[in-house]
Amino acid sequence: MLKATNLHKAYGNLEILKGVDLFVEKGEVVSIVGASGAGKSTLLHIAGTLDKADQGSLIIDGTDVRSLNPKRLSAFRNSRIGFIFQFHHLLPEFNAIENVCIPAYIANKSKKEAEKNASELLEMLGLKDRMTHKPTELSGGEQQRVAVARALINRPAIIFADEPSGNLDSTNAKELHKLFFDLRNHFGQTFVVVTHNEELAGMADRELLMKDGKIVGVEQLTRIVTG
Ligand code: ADP
Ligand code: ADP
C-alpha cells in the first residue's frame, strides 16, 4: 500500500530524515513512536504527500507520487489519502455532517451521495445524534470522530494520523486508537499513526521506533491476515 524508500529531508543544515524506509501493507495499522524531535511528523507529512523529500521514492497504492504534477497530486491526495491531526481542524461554522462532506464535494461528489455516505459513517462512529451539531457543541472525543469520518469519506487507500489523540484524555485516546482497528476490520483501511505515547503505540499491528531521523526498531504486535 505504501512503499517509501530512502527518504531524506533537511531544513537548512539540519538533517531531519536520514534515509527512512517505510513499507505498509494494505489493511495494516502501523504506529510510529519516538521522542519529540525524532522526525515523526516530518516523515508523516512526506509519506502523506503534504511535503516533499529531498531524496527517496514514494509509492502509494501503486502510484509513483513523484510522477504527478501539482494538480494531479492534489487530486490524488484528496481522493486516496486521509489525514487526522491532533487538532481536528473542523470548520466551526459548519455542522458535523457538513464538515464530513467537504472532501467529497472537492472530489465532485453530489450533495446526495456525499450526505448519504457521511451520515452512514457518522452513524457507524456513534454520532447519529450529533450530525447537525457544530464542532463547539461536541466533546473532544466526538470532534475527533467527526474528523475521522471526514478522513474516511472518500474511501482513501491510506490514512495518516499525526498525534490524533494528543488532545484527548486517556480514555478517549484509547477509544480512538481502538477505532482504527474497527475501521480496518470493517473496511480494510490502512493506517499510519504517529504518537509519542508508548501505550497507544502498542495499539497497532506493527510499531516502529523512530530516533534521530531514522527508524531504529520494529515490533510486530499482531499477525494480520490481508485479503
Ligand atoms: P517529531 O514529530 O518526532 O516531534 P518533527 O518531525 O516534528 O519531529 O521535527 C523534527 C525536527 O525538525 C525538529 O527539530 C523540528 O524543529 C524540525 N523541523 C520540523 N519542521 C521544520 C521546518 N519546517 N523548518 C525547520 N525545521 C523543522
Ligand atoms: P453496508 O453497511 O451497506 O455494507 P459498508 O459497511 O460497506 O456498507 O459501508 C458503510 C458506509 O461506509 C457507507 O457509507 C460506505 O459508503 C462507507 N464506506 C465503505 N467503504 C469505505 C471505506 N473503505 N472507507 C470509508 N468509508 C467507506
UniProtKB/TrEMBL annotation:
Gene3D superfamilies: P-loop containing nucleotide triphosphate hydrolases (3.40.50.300). PROSITE patterns: ABC_TRANSPORTER_1, ABC_TRANSPORTER_2. Keywords: ATP-binding, Cell membrane, Lipoprotein, Membrane, Nucleotide-binding, Translocase, Transport. InterPro entries: AAA+_ATPase, ABC_transporter-like_ATP-bd, ABC_transporter-like_CS, ABC_transpr_LolD-like, MacB-like_ATP-bd, P-loop_NTPase. Residues 2-227 form the ABC transporter domain. One of its GO terms (cellular component) is plasma membrane. It comes from the Bacteria. GO terms for biological process: lipoprotein localization to outer membrane; protein localization to outer membrane. It holds the Pfam family ABC_tran. GO terms for molecular function: ATP binding; ATP hydrolysis activity; transmembrane transporter activity. PANTHER family: ABC TRANSPORTER ABCH.1, IMPORT ATP-BINDING PROTEIN. This is Lipoprotein-releasing system ATP-binding protein. The lineage of its organism: Bacteria, Pseudomonadati, Bacteroidota, Sphingobacteriia, Sphingobacteriales.
